[in-house]
Design a protein that fits this description.
Low-confidence stretches: none
Mean pLDDT: 96
Radius of gyration: 21 Å
Strand content: 5-15%
Number of helices: 15
CATH class of the largest domain: Alpha Beta
Distance between the termini: 33 Å
Strand order of the largest sheet: 2-1-3-4-5-6
CATH superfamily of the largest domain: Glycogen Phosphorylase B
Number of domains: 2
Structural class: alpha/beta
Helix content: 40-55%
Bound molecules: uridine-5'-diphosphate
CATH topology of the largest domain: Rossmann fold
Length: 399
């Protein structure tokens, strides 16, 4: 089902539709393009799925393009992603050529010169700007945790970033030294998408049954791409400590995104690490309904990220009234308030103690879950993101 702006009034309050139309008036019939590297399997695709629809609904002609690349290209861009998050990677000239040549080729057939605003997400299509005679403002939106990038890669990418008219980050501390305006806009979730919409208990159970997840014991889960920065190995280690004190099941759910070449290998390693333990369920399958059901059925959600741009999975879980046990990294502290709607943990023992506390005290978990939903309602719904985007477009277009 495709929802309209009006359907979101129930979350954003009466008068929301009028407010948005008023804000969007000067942008009506403008032609905007969003460009990223995958249609599914990560936070960026998740946001664009809803945001692009709503922008069209308010009368802005908004397109969504993908950069096309082969395995070598996505190997290089994943290395760039890792280096921006602090990993020491060396980039050879041939790797840089793959990155640049793929962007060059894409610039020939993406035809981004007929728009009034171009919005580029993350490093994969970042150099595309270099191959256009810029006729309109271009915005670079970085979704990655770049609080501590490897120096070499950032100074290389900066050559392209400075060509943009504005940059957008999720958190204040990700701002860089740049000669262009930098805006802070945290991501958001769509409460009406099939991943977040309310679900009946029978529908939740149906999903769990479909994926062979028994409901005989409480469930704890991490739902994230199989990615080193999400540290799924650490989740298994923490689970073993938790299990000694409280009988429960662990589910690790992670679909593999088309722009993430490391996912399959990490998934295989996790399968091996979890092998022969009937209480650990490792699933690699893309299903919004399963994500939704699991976030609701779990007693708590773990997000063991070492670096995290924002972590939509955190907002998704909190929205469903499930407390989140996580680390104080990247954009997560915007969402989790320690002791209010979840906990921060620092090491395995801390993780296991706090998990057991939440598992044993259902009343506390329920209260924290309710706080979490309210925190997301006020701050991290797509309605706020839509408003922020409209304000940004007007600002950049000087309308
Ligand atoms: N996701 C999913 N299926 C999975 C694992 C993750 O649909 O098996 C979704 C998740 O629900 C969230 C997005 O992928 O909407 C991940 O966004 P996040 O910001 O947490 O992390 P990213 O993958 O962008 O680093």
């Amino acid at each position: 089902m495709r929802y309209k702006l009006k359907d979101y009034e129930q979350f954003a309050g009466k008068g929301f539709t009028e407010k948005i139309h008023e804000l969007a008036k000067p942008l009506e019939h403008k032609h905007i393009a969003h460009l990223n590297s995958t249609y599914y399997g990560g936070g960026v695709a998740e946001i664009l799925n809803s945001l692009v629809m709503l922008l069209n609904d308010v009368g802005i002609i908004t397109g969504w393009r993908l950069i096309k690349g082969d395995k070598d290209f996505f190997d290089v861009t994943k290395q760039i992603h890792n280096a921006l998050q602090g990993e020491h990677e060396h980039f050879s000239n041939s790797e840089k050529s793959i990155y640049i040549n793929t962007n060059h080729a894409n610039s020939v057939f993406t035809h981004l010169d007929r728009h009034e605003l171009v919005f580029v997400h993350d490093p994969q299509p970042l150099p595309m700007i270099h191959f256009y005679k810029k006729k309109c403002p271009w915005i670079w939106r970085c979704h990655i945790d770049i609080s501590n990038p490897t120096h070499g890669i950032w100074s290389y990418l900066k050559k392209f970033v400075v060509k943009y008219d504005a940059a957008v980050f999720s958190v204040e501390k990700f701002k860089q030294k740049l000669p262009l305006p930098q805006h802070i806009i945290p991501p958001a979730i769509d409460p009406l998408s099939s991943k977040n919409v309310d679900m009946k208990e029978s529908a939740i159970n149906k999903q769990l049954k479909k994926f062979d997840i028994p409901t005989d014991k409480p469930i704890i889960a991490q739902i994230s791409r199989f990615d080193r920065w999400k540290d799924p190995w650490g989740v298994i280690d923490a689970y073993h400590l938790i299990k000694k004190k409280f009988d429960c099941r662990l589910v690790l759910l992670g679909a593999v995104a088309s722009d993430d070449p490391e996912g399959d290998k990490i998934y295989e390693g996790i399968i091996e690490k979890a092998a022969s333990n009937d209480n650990i369920h490792v699933i690699s399958f893309q299903s919004d309904m399963l994500v939704n059901a699991l976030q609701r059925a779990s007693s708590l959600i773990i997000q063991n990220s070492i670096r995290e741009g924002f972590g939509l999975t955190v907002a998704e879980a909190l929205w469903k009234g499930t407390p989140v046990l996580t680390r104080r990294v990247g954009g997560i502290p915007l969402q989790v308030k320690n002791g209010y709607n979840g906990y921060f943990a620092t090491d395995l023992h801390d993780f296991s103690n706090k998990a057991v506390k939440l598992l044993k005290n259902k009343k506390l978990a329920k209260k924290m879950g309710a706080n979490g939903r309210e925190h997301v309602r006020k701050n991290f719904l797509i309605t706020r993101l839509l408003e922020d985007h409209l304000k940004l477009y007007k600002n950049v277009l000087k309308l």
